[in-house]
Amino acid sequence: MRQEKKRKKLIGALGMAALTGTWQASAQEPARADESLGEVVVTASRIEQHSLEAPASVSVVSAEKLEETGAARPTDALTARVPGFYWRGPTGIADRAITGSTHSLRGQNLSRVKIMLDGVSLADGNSGQNRSLVGIEMDDIERIEVVPGVSSALYGSDAIGGVVNVITKVPTKQEINAKYIHGFDEVKRDGYSASYRNRWENGLALSFSAGYEEREGSRKQNQVWSATKSYASRDPKDVSTNTKGDPTYLIGDSGAIPSRISRVNARIFYELDRKSRFYAGFGYFEAKQGYRNYHQYISGPAVTGTTLWNTSAPTYNEEYRYFAGYDGKLGQNFDLNANISYAKQDYYYVTSLSGATFNGGLGYQTGTPSNNLEGSIQLGSAIGQKQYLILGLSSARNELDRKSYNVSNWRHPEGHHTGLRDTTDADSRINAFFIQDQIFVTDALTLYAGGRYDKWTSDGTVWNSVGTLKSKASKSAFSPKLAVVYRWNDTLSFRASVGKAFRAPTNNDMYALSRSTDKNGTSGARILVPDPGVKPETATAIDFGVEKALPGNGFVKAAVYRTKLKDMLYRKVFPSDGSYDYLGGVPITELSRMTNAGESLTKGIELSGEMPLASWLRASASYTWTDAKITKDDTGASLKGKFVRYVPKNMASIGLDARWRDWSANLMTTYVGKRYGQEDNSDRVENVYGGSAKYWLSNLRVGYRIDKNFKATLAINNLFDKKYYEYYLMPGRNVSLEIRAAF
To answer: What average pLDDT is seen over the chain?
Structure first.
């Protein structure tokens, strides 16, 4: 029997609760037992619905899957396993805990992918980095929903490649959990975490979690290669090339990079009835990254200069996040969702200057503290039996207070400031109105029509020894989207959509300030200058998809898409016009300005599936082909025809999950294909320091439930000891042991 009439009746009863509150869909009605309708998702349309009815090919990574795969960071479980998603940055096995990330989804890289926690953006107020992911306790995650494709019609700026929404748990009963993990080999670490969740009969619920992690770091991952020919007598195994094919020689390492991370998260809920509740909470995390002594492998005199040093330490990141809201009914006929969040983020790094030594000396410290205030209100209501309408308002404000100081001791910068180098004060705001109408045209055909109007303004001031530069900008964007879903039967649906999206420039895009040698490598300086004429990037996309639900809660999905990005932002470099003579005593030879200088075209195919092979065994697989190329370039750098960086052309995954009595096992193999880190694709040589590699990577995880309260798990990462680079040499085979307790 077909389910459409039952579906519409359910929609009217539930009020199609929308996604904007921090407790999200995990607090909604439980999924129906009818497995043919697929998983319950919310991010695709801000409406709770089953995946076969969603207007996008949503990928869901549940808490159970996160535990099975042993993910230490939310992104560990996404690369290649979620079609079209790639992440290079802080992971569960990477040496660097808080460095900036690079990622892509459907051929759109960096801040063209919106990453959210419970519907609120995690991008910082400087460059749009998502370091806040480090502050999420894994045991707090209910699931991660990934919605590929243009999504600005609902989520505004940055949602060109899609949306990644980390949804946290809401207490339903008393739970006490604790976990200890110890890593061996190259990934030596000790991690501790605990959580408490409870719900009482009076409507109150509480969730609290805390975690602490220490990593020793591995000097093996921090190799130092030199092009100096006098090292040519080295052992052949220590001779390689750089990414352009020029000979290089392994001369040492810059030492291990130890780090520690602390995090605390707390949330409280008050339930008025089974459909309405208030919530509030806070989150805090702190991450520190240090250094160890370097090692020289070659014989003879010590290498001069800073060649072997870790020249960017210490590094520090801290964030406070507060939020509150309401999710539920307004009267009998309306669903109301309102939330507000405030994040205070601080990040700094230190760099040595000429004349410094490994232990100290001159340098500079750069800090990029930012404040992010974001809020939204959304009202939804059924209009008869054929429509469900959503109206919403949102506002976001990002403030940046960047300062760079000269310091007399670069290893211990606090208390050693000797003068202000430069500052950036920036204030960017986006105010928006959005609307979405879900129309049940027939029992089988559903139409989604909507759009969002965003007004973006930015105001910034940059100061350095040359003078003061001020810049203002204001633009608007309208992002419409139309989608149709056709339910062929209870287990098969087809979908298609067309829409537009935009990305507003970050504060760093507009007001960044730095100095470096010029492109000819001569002794000079490049200054980044603001451009009041810079405008948001825009994209237009079309996609088609099909989804088939299988017995045992399995599925197969396929999608094809095409995305055209216009007004693509690049840094355009040009000779100094004489407006600036010197910066810190060094002549200004070049100027650099963020400019809307390019266009790109991305085409892709996505395939994924999951199904039971036996009562104790499940299999999953995915494959993605992505062709993302620059089709227009006005920078003068001859980028037309080049591949967009950080976008693998091919990705795939194959996984097996087994459960037998008290035993469980997960074997996951992922493939990441050719990709570039440079816009001009000059890093053509693979699997060398500074570049990347095509690789198959397998991880094995075996667990045993000791009793009803305790479980032990042994994980072997990089099972076949694959040697590969993600800029740095990645860890070889390594082992970790985890003990979990639940009461």
So the answer is: 86
